[in-house]
């Protein structure tokens, strides 16, 4: 118990430190004191930079990172497997496809509630379809194959929308936004996405104890009084809310949900319930770090944070598949 | 006068359009261990899952005269503990945590662990001889150790009714005896146990009553010597058996195919 709180305490300190660093770093570097004073008073150029430009971006990175970490941990708890994660199930890809459809055909501007709702519906369609296809007694192989198919389908849908986009500028806008980025995100973006993400935290955290019971398998968990239908619905709904809203404002950012819980799992003795909070905190720390990194790398155009998380996350995913080869080869996981 | 803990009347279960369990009626009375035997595909697992409330079934299943289908899940879980086949664990948790999951239906809304919970877990670890394994990671344990931890989890619930699906599967003879003796002991503390067993001699040795299932139907429900007669074993299992007297019991010894 105490070791878990020490871990959470350390992670909270790390997230706060990274938030401070994130407020300091950018084209005009600010020392910690100046950044804090500017945040507090909001005076002058420093105030504008910190409050209007860096704060929304920083808070979005923390909230989205935590949401992705938490939804990864919840999907892993539901599927009883460390390889589950929103991006593997095509959730961000589907959310991006739905959101770009709305933008491409002029149904909405990029900073409106409509995009967030479209993103949520897209994510809901993909995660819901995956849970329906996988059904009970999910073998890992079926889940991964179905996830691959859904992600590919969402990718194809997005390509079609780009293909048919009425004007090339919109296509360019969509393409950049699909790469996943927190650049130039405003308070409006924050206000659109935050309520959905906070709601998703509540929905995803509620079945935590059921995830622990699921260690015994679905039948034994059900016999202990776990309402599997309700747990599935909450994980699907929570993931869709959180990931859909995150994608709607920041584009597709993948693999944080895979990496974050994995990094902290051993510190909570692999308990699928107790991994939720540190998994969310680690997700926030990871995305903050990635977003700080893209601002520090010297390049003419800022790197996209979604590209960075994928470049790190995919090899990580492959190495985890390597570790899970035996259960993948077996008839069921 | 015996107390009936669980009553199943005219239970039928359909899966994938096929009727797997046909019009089964059986009772579990206080202090008895009932063995459920039958050839592969007879519907034993389906029946025991239906009795545990995990599969939709026609007919009625009642605990203490109350229909299982109308009972809230946590209350059902406090009255009836179910041990599935296999003893596989998805996460490498310490054994004590696995056993503590048996207290899941007793948790208060704030999921605090009470002294009763701790006592129940300690007792379950103790009687299954797994106290020394409490801090070990379950996925690293041997088959026999895992089976005992899984059994400790079921016993930690302290539910009066135990339903165990092949708890002795892939265990060595000593562990088979240990597991059956523990289930009988748990049943004799005012509980009742229904245990799927493949080894007919093991069933005859430990069961107060044997229910023989064939093609989804109950073909015998009686004391072991009557339920597991030479003729019935030949008819249901297609094997020739000798009935051997041992310790005052009649144990079927399978000789070979008919």
Topology:
The complex is a heterodimer of chains A (333) and B (258).
Chain A (H helix, E strand, L loop, with lengths): L1 H23 L7 H10 L2 H36 L11 H14 L8 H22 L5 H25 L3 H11 L8 H19 L2 H6 L4 H6 L4 H23 L5 H10 L10 H21 L8 H19 L1 H5 L4
Chain B lengths: L3 E12 L2 E12 L2 E6 L6 H8 L6 E6 L2 E2 L5 H7 E4 L11 H6 L14 H13 L15 H14 L4 E5 L7 H16 L3 E5 L3 H7 L2 E6 L2 E6 L1 H4 L2 H8 L1 E8 L2 E9 L1
Parallel strand pairs in B: 3-8, 3-9, 6-7, 7-8
Antiparallel strand pairs in B: 1-2, 1-4, 4-5, 9-10, 11-12
Helix pairs in contact in B: 4-5
What's the gist of this structure?
The complex is a heterodimer of chains A (about 325) and B (about 260). With about 325 residues, chain A is mostly helical.
Overview of the molecule:
- The complex is a heterodimer of chains A (333) and B (258).
- Chain A has 15 helices and no strands.
- Chain A has 333 residues and is mainly alpha-helical.
- Chain A has a single domain, classed as ABC transporter involved in vitamin B12 uptake, BtuC.
- In chain A, α3 packs across α13, α4 runs antiparallel to α7 and α4 packs across α11.
- The two termini of chain A are 29 Å apart.
- The mean pLDDT of chain A is 87.
- By secondary structure, chain B is α/β, with parallel strands linked by helices.
- Chain B has a single domain, classed as P-loop containing nucleotide triphosphate hydrolases (Rossmann fold), CATH 3.40.50.300.
- Helices cover 32% and strands 31% of the residues of chain B.
- Chain B contains nine helices and twelve strands.
- In chain B, α4 packs antiparallel against α5.
- The longest helix of chain B has 16 residues.
- The termini of chain B are far apart.
- The model of chain B has no long low-confidence stretch (mean pLDDT 93).
- At the A-B interface, α9 and α10 of A face α2 and β6 of B.
């Amino acid at each position: 118990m105490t070791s878990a709180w020490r871990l959470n305490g350390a992670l909270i300190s790390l997230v706060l430190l990274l938030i401070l660093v994130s407020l300091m770093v950018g084209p005009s570097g600010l020392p910690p004191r100046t950044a804090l004073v500017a945040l507090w008073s909001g005076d002058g150029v420093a105030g504008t930079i910190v409050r209007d430009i860096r704060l929304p971006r920083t808070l979005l990175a923390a909230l989205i990172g935590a949401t992705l970490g938490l939804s990864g941990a919840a999907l892993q708890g539901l599927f009883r497997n460390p390889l589950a994660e929103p991006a593997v199930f095509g959730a961000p890809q589907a959310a991006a496809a739905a959101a770009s459809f709305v933008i491409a055909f002029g149904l909405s501007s990029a900073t409106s509630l409509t995009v967030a709702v479209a993103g949520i519906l897209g994510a809901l369609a993909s995660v819901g379809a995956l849970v329906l296809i996988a059904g009970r007694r999910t073998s890992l192989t079926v889940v991964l194959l179905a996830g691959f198919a859904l992600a590919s389908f969402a990718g194809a849908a997005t390509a079609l929308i780009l293909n048919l986009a009425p004007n090339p500028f919109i296509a360019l806008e969509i393409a950049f936004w699909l790469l996943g980025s927190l650049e130039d995100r405003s308070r409006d973006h924050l206000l659109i996405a935050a309520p959905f993400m906070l709601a998703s935290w509540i929905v995803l955290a509620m079945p935590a104890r059921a995830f622990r019971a699921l260690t015994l398998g679905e039948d034994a968990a059900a016999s202990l009084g776990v309402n599997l239908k309700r747990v599935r619905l909450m994980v699907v709904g929570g993931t869709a809310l959180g990931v859909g809203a995150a994608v709607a404002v920041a584009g597709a950012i993948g693999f944080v949900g895979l990496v974050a819980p994995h990094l902290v799992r051993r510190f909570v003795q692999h308990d699928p319930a107790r991994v939720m909070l540190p998994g969310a905190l680690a997700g926030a720390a990871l995305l903050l770090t990635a977003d700080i990194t893209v601002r520090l790398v010297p390049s003419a155009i800022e790197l996209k944070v979604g590209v960075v998380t994928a470049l790190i996350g995919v090899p990580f995913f492959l190495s985890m598949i390597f570790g899970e080869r035996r259960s993948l080869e077996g008839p069921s996981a | 006068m015996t107390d009936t803990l669980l009553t199943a009347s005219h239970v039928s279960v359909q899966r994938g359009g096929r009727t797997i369990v046909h019009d089964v009626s059986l009772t579990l009375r206080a202090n008895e261990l009932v063995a459920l035997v039958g050839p592969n595909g007879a519907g034993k697992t389906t029946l025991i899952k239906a009795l545990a409330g995990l599969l939709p079934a026609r007919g009625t299943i009642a605990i203490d005269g109350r229909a299982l289908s109308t009972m809230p899940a946590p209350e059902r879980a406090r009255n009836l503990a179910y041990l599935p086949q296999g003893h596989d664990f998805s996460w490498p948790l310490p054994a004590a945590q696995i056993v503590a999951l048996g207290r899941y239906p007793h948790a208060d809304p704030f999921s605090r662990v009470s002294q009763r919970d701790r006592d129940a877990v300690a007792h379950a670890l103790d009687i299954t001889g797994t106290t020394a394994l409490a801090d070990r990671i379950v996925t690293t344990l041997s088959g026999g150790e895992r089976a005992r931890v899984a059994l400790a989890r079921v016993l930690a619930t302290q539910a009066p009714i135990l339903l165990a699906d092949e708890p002795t599967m892939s265990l060595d003879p000593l562990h088979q005896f240990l597991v059956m003796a523990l289930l009988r002991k748990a049943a004799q503390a005012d509980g009742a146990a229904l245990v799927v067993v493949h080894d007919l001699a093991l069933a005859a040795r430990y069961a107060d009553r044997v229910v023989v299932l064939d093609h989804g139907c109950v073909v015998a429900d009686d004391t072991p010597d009557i339920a597991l007669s030479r003729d019935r074993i030949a008819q249901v299992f297609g094997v020739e058996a000798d009935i051997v007297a041992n310790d005052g019991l009649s144990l079927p010894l399978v000789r070979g195919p008919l």
